[in-house]
Write a structure and sequence with these properties.
Low-confidence stretches: 98-114, 118-132, 569-584
Shape: globular
Number of helices: 15
Largest sheet: 8 strands, mixed
Mean pLDDT: 83
Strand content: 15-25%
Structural class: alpha+beta
Helix content: 25-40%
């Protein structure tokens, strides 16, 4: 069920097994797991949309949300902290539409009607055997861009799914995948020898890479083979315990250029420094996911990462959860033993519950959120008229691409990572591309200062349409805390600053088992075609049996009433006191 509580109606029923506050991915998975085993779940969110920090906004919606300001709880004992700060919208001036043609302002390009004779001459000179050239860039006007804003989807926390990772496994095993569609990530861009190149991510691409010498290809393949085949916890693996990854690379004679290529393309980490153990595990995990849905090890939900929490919310609602948006508790209630027993809503209504799962954006006087392991992350979102690396070969796809810039390569103090989304990913509008980059925020807390220089260099070859900067709070990679059931309340964690969802899924699983230790976590929902319904013959037999049973019961009741009226029950004579006054 879904309710937007703008009418401030009362919620019924008023007692639940689990009350979940916040609709992030972790909270939605926990709600789905609880409802799947038959528990009653009430799921609340102060926002008017699903996902909180995991949501996807349209550009128009994000601008409106920024103007309206974050929702507020009118209570001193309960607070809600907004998940976005320092929002900065920058519109690029565009020409107005004129006589059917549009173009970027001050582009310096002029168009004129072509001379027919010149066109004929060009046609004669064209070699028809060559591959077609890159199509011309679409022209944009201010009017066209304004109309497209509602079709632009921006992830607040952009992430990808490993092709054989925790998220894909969970979607398959639970049958939640029926609510989603995906696009395969097809390219990875890194900064190599002063330019942005498409990084090789499998054996074929390594040997076909024109940026590597023959000897470099052999050295790189020898190192990659070692990382893929080494057994975790073996003696060979233990040799690198407590050593930095640079020692590992040097031992295989990788030069500085190869090291930067490996770290940017295969060691999928936002840390500036990683251990040798972490590097080996990351490369091994990366390579084991390659080739499942394409040449890259990742897939991305169509319409953005915000679809994932909504998918689990739909799953949960199918099994009876009640969702109420635009409402928040003002106080958590406790029983005499000090355990959670319910909450009071801003409408004044009291709801009873046995357990409570709370998003980290909410805090109260009795439940202070720890800032340990948290880090501010700067975001830059650029909308452009073309890809930063247009397709050059037939059969290539540019739906989703990975981008990684190591610290110092483009004047950046920390590593910069992110994605480019093409129009078929359904995040940017038609004829539009989106570049979303992130980095650890600097001391000044200004996302534009942190990322504008890097992003301008990455997108130097495209025509920009729009810029957006903002900051979010995230858990540092490797610093996700274990869930704790305290007074029947579990507080979840912020998103982890990395590519995948493994930490959030593990947290949801552990939290569920704290609530219900003996229950299975999110078992598969039956497919409609697998549900066995009685066929026509069985239905007729069942209806006949039910009709005969009803007839027999009716006849027996009539006989008993007749016997009661004459004082004869069960073959005996009843006295006057034993006859019910309601027998008639």
């Amino acid at each position: 069920y879904y309710i937007t509580n703008n009418l401030r109606m009362e919620i019924t029923p008023t007692e639940y097994d689990v009350i979940v506050i916040g609709t992030g991915i972790t909270e939605c998975i926990i709600a789905a797991a609880c409802s799947r085993i038959g528990k009653t779940v009430l799921h609340l969110d102060i926002n008017r949309f699903y996902g909180e920090q995991w949501s996807s906004f349209t550009l128009t919606g994000l601008e409106n949300y920024s103007r309206e300001g974050p929702p507020r709880i009118n209570a001193d004992s309960f607070k809600y902290e907004h998940f976005m700060q320092n929002l900065n919208f920058i519109e690029i001036p565009l020409n107005q539409e004129s006589d059917g043609e549009t173009r970027l302002q001050d582009s310096g390009e002029k168009t004129a009607d072509p001379d027919p004779s010149e066109c004929n001459k060009e046609k004669e000179d064209v070699d028809t055997t060559e591959a077609p050239t890159t199509p011309p860039k679409p022209q944009w006007s201010s009017e066209k861009f304004q109309k497209s804003k509602r079709r632009v989807n921006i992830d607040i926390t952009p992430k990808l799914c490993y092709s054989a990772g925790h998220m894909v496994d969970l979607l398959r095993s639970s049958n939640c995948s029926r609510y989603l569609e995906f696009k395969a990530v097809s390219r990875s861009f890194v900064h190599y020898k002063g330019e942005l190149i498409q990084a090789p991510c499998n054996r074929e691409q390594v040997f076909n890479c024109k940026h590597l010498k023959v000897l470099e290809k052999r050295i790189m393949m020898k190192f990659v083979t070692f990382a893929l085949q080494v057994v975790i916890d073996s003696e060979e693996y233990q040799e690198w315990d407590k050593k930095e990854d640079m020692e590992l690379y040097k031992s295989f004679k990788l030069n500085d250029d190869l090291i930067s290529l490996v770290r940017a393309s295969l060691v999928v980490s936002n840390k500036d420094k990683v251990s040798a153990h972490d590097a080996i595990q990351s490369i091994k995990h990366y390579l084991k996911n390659v080739g499942i849905y394409g040449s890259m090890p990742f897939i991305c939900p169509i319409y953005g990462a915000g679809e994932l929490p909504q998918a689990f919310a739909r799953f949960s609602a199918v099994f009876g959860s009640i969702y109420v948006l635009d409402i928040s508790p003002t106080e958590l209630n406790y029983d005499d033993s000090g355990n959670f027993c319910g909450l009071t809503l801003q409408t004044g209504q009291m709801i009873k519950g046995q357990f409570c799962v709370v998003s980290p954006n909410y805090s109260s006087e009795s439940r202070k959120r720890s800032s340990e392991g948290l880090m501010p992350v700067s975001h830059a979102v650029y909308l452009a008229d073309s890809s930063i690396k247009p397709i050059s070969k037939p059969g290539e796809q540019d739906d989703v691409s990975l981008v990684h810039i190591l610290a110092g390569q483009l004047g950046n103090s920390s590593a910069v990572s992110g994605y480019e989304f093409g129009p078929r990913s359904m995040l940017p509008a038609e004829d539009m591309y989106m570049v979303h980059l992130t980095t650890a925020a600097g001391d000044a807390g200004d996302p534009r200062a942190d990322l504008e220089g890097v992003t301008d260099q990455v997108t130097s070859s495209v025509g920009l349409l729009y810029k957006l900067f903002f900051t979010t709070q995230m858990s540092a990679e490797g610093c996700t805390s274990e869930p704790v059931l305290d007074k029947n309340i579990i507080t979840t964690s912020f998103p982890t600053y990395n590519v995948g969802y493994s930490e959030s899924i593990e947290e949801a699983k552990k939290s569920f088992h704290l609530l219900y230790p003996e229950e299975e976590f999110l078992p598969a929902a039956p497919n409609p075609e697998d549900i066995k319904w009685p066929d026509e013959d069985e239905t007729e037999v069942l209806e006949t049996e039910q009709t005969d049973n009803v007839t027999d019961i009716s006849e027996k009741m009539t006989d008993d009433l007749d016997k009661s009226a004459t004082g004869e029950i069960n073959g005996g004579i009843a006295d006057e006191k034993s006859i019910s006054p309601d027998a008639d």
